[in-house]
Amino acid sequence: MEGGSINPVLEFLVTSSLFTALCPSSVCLVTFYLTGHPFLFVLPLTVFSATLLIYTMNRFTDRNEDLINNPQRFRYIDRYGRMTLVVAATLYLLSLGWLLRLDLSTFIVAVLPVVIAVLYSVFRLKRMFLAKNISVSSGAVCSSLIVLFYFHDFSPFSLELSLFFFVSFLINTIVFDIKDIAGDARYHICTLPSVCGLQKTKIACSALLLVNLLLIPVLASSNPDALLLLSFIFYIGLYIAFAGDPRHLPPWFYGIVVDGEFLFLGVWYALLIAMVHAAGAVPSPGFP
Which CATH architecture has domain 8-263? Predict the structure, then answer.
């Protein structure tokens, strides 16, 4: 990774996209908890395998850009990319087969991220200004929507929660583009940072973060556990403030801090569940 070295295990997790695949899976688990639906293992498994498949596919189509932006990732794909692709595709197809037997609408939601990924990578949708960020965020928020569609839950709370996650994913993709300005500019990929500059990008992300901040009281009025999302807002605000040239930041900043925000959220709620159990209180029906 740029700017130095990190723990080899963490570096492998980031470079192989395993770390990235765990993050939408955390969103899926948090959605289970906050909506109170019974846990169903196939849903986070589908999210994990789909994300791993999509990001591995994207590594192949981004080889030229990665040679400049992330040489370590380029080397990983060269050596292990095909094996990762086979494993991810196998898990994903097995999950889809399981979902097809359970519920057609959930199956369609599970397929949608890959359809978006094909448009994004193969048809180079990412070269269109903001289309990259919106398409990636739309695919990623399926990690929350897959729970809602399986349980046919379209209550205001559940839809507002998915909107919260969509905006969070959108901020994440925009901030992550900051570290790729050099490669994106060279290959004419129009991102918010490469077109508008660092400061305007941070202002735009802060405005989006304000939208999420305003959503929290609405969510908390239905489920007080949603107040824990305030710490998530604070976390995002911090990395927006510190985002900048990767050469002047620790090597783990973008790969761990920014890309791992949803894993942080999942761990945060896991601690809440553990404290609820320890206190002997009645937990959410999603996690008995």
Answer: Orthogonal Bundle (1.10)
